[in-house]
Write a structure and sequence with these properties.
444 residues; mainly alpha; Serine Threonine Protein Phosphatase 5, Tetratricopeptide repeat; 70% helix; globular
């Protein structure tokens, strides 16, 4: 059991004093009422205050004293127990001291100097320096909630290393978080979700091997269907807590399955139609879960940073359904636009790369050259500024020349509509042959 903090002891004393004061007031009220009653009774009997005390009156006085002492002793015991419970029990309940306004992140920033320093290093693009500071912060964690938050940040710092071999070291850290029942379900869900996100960011086969090499993850792996493997991984995260990105990723997977079903010969048979209807119900349920999580985090300056990326993924889902003529999921354009605007409002416009890419991609699929001005405007930030040089979207563009995620054809389409974007891809290591070879791709 950890030692109580000075603040906790002070609060405990305050609780004790307040309890004693309340009970003392009650005792005083009882005693005063008894005294008044005695005087009234004496007056009615014609008694004189100076008259010697009778044996009966003395017995009453002794009973009154005993009652007062007993009540006082009980009050003191209650106060001590209340203080003990606050210091040793309430303070040790994970999450008990945190709220929407006093989040664990805010508490760590204010009370754990090593965490504050590490977080500043991570945000300034110095993840390798942040790692050691986050390890220092772990030693100063006051409860499992704080420890879980620091562990997540540690994993993110490791993952952001420029050395890919170093990035792989984030996988066991995330697995450790996901398996620890002492951490909150939200923290554990985020850790599992991040395992899947790493693959979709870096698209490296070594990640798949590292993630699925042991249980419970091994049972999720289907080497012939990696998208299914990662959908199962997002499902694992969702079983811990329905985080918005996991929910939208799962819905996105079902959208892809509908696209594949519709491409099959004889796709209008009853079995296929029933499956499509069922998949759409699952999608809408997952989207509803995600929207509830957005409502939970959108006003939190720290967790709310995930909202733009989640909206970008929702825009992708809507776009796929619109391509099939289903407008019941909404309109993609305002969703993509809101995602990009939120990145700007959040002071992180350099993170809007994926939203710009997907928005431009689906405009090209819907309208082609008809919206080429809008498409080039979205893409121009990639080649007219240097803000994306070390970003995750730049890593995605670079790696996808090998068609790792089976979406290379979309990049080739965009390059055909914007020659400067093609030059940008060439600067990332693409060759002329990469724009002409027949590609193995998924439908959309």
């Amino acid at each position: 059991m950890r030692r109580p903090t000075v603040v906790a002891v002070a609060v405990a004393v305050a609780v004790a004093v307040a309890t004693l004061a309340t009970l003392a007031t009650a005792v005083a009220t009882v005693v005063a009422a008894a005294a008044v009653a005695a005087v009234v009774a004496a007056a009615k009997a014609g008694a004189v205050l100076a008259t010697p005390v009778t044996p009966a009156a003395a017995a009453n006085n002794r009973m009154t004293k005993t009652l007062v002492i007993s009540i006082g002793t009980a009050a003191l015991a209650v106060a001590v127990l209340a203080g003990w419970w606050y210091v040793y029990e309430y303070q040790n309940v994970p999450g008990a001291r945190y709220s929407e306004t006093e989040t664990v992140y805010n508490v760590l920033i204010n009370e754990n100097s090593a965490f504050a320093e590490a977080d500043a290093l991570l945000r300034s693009g110095k993840p390798d320096l942040a790692v050691s500071k986050f390890r220092d912060a772990l030693v100063r964690a006051n409860d499992p909630v704080q420890e879980g938050q620091i562990m997540i940040k540690l994993a993110v710092a490791i993952e952001n290393s420029e050395n890919f071999e170093k990035r792989l070291e984030a996988v066991p850290v995330l697995k450790e978080i996901g398996a620890n029942p002492a951490y909150t379900n939200i923290t554990r869900a985020y850790a599992v979700q991040q395992l899947a996100n790493m693959f979709y960011t870096y698209g490296d086969a070594r990640l798949t091997e590292e993630i699925f090499k042991d249980e419970p993850y091994k049972s999720y792996l289907d080497r012939k269907n990696l998208s299914l493997s990662y959908r199962r991984l997002f499902g694992h995260a969702s079983s811990l807590y329905p985080l918005v990105l996991s929910e939208f990723r799962i819905a996105d997977w079902y959208a892809d399955q509908i696209l594949k079903l519709r491409a099959l010969p004889g796709n209008e048979n009853a079995t296929t139609t029933e499956r499509i209807v069922r998949y759409k119900k699952i999608m809408k349920a997952r989207i509803a879960n995600g929207e509830r999580d957005i409502a939970r985090i959108q006003n939190d300056p720290h967790e709310g940073a995930a909202v733009p990326g989640a909206l970008m993924r929702k825009g992708v889902i809507i776009a796929k359904m619109q391509l099939m003529g289903d407008t019941s999921f909404g309109d993609m354009e305002p969703v993509f636009q809101r995602a990009i605007n939120l990145y700007v409002l959040g002071g992180i416009p350099e993170n809007d790369g994926y939203a710009r890419y997907y928005y431009a991609l689906y405009l090209s699929k819907f309208y082609g050259a008809e919206r080429v001005t809008d498409i080039r405007k979205l893409l121009s930030k990639f080649y007219e500024t240097g803000v994306y040089r070390n970003s995750r979207v730049a890593i995605f563009f670079k790696n996808e020349k090998k068609n790792v995620l089976r979406v290379k054809r979309g990049l080739i389409l965009l390059a055909s509509l914007d020659p400067k974007f093609k030059e940008y891809l060439l600067s990332l290591g693409w060759g002329d042959a990469d724009f002409t070879k027949r590609q193995e791709v998924r439908l959309f």
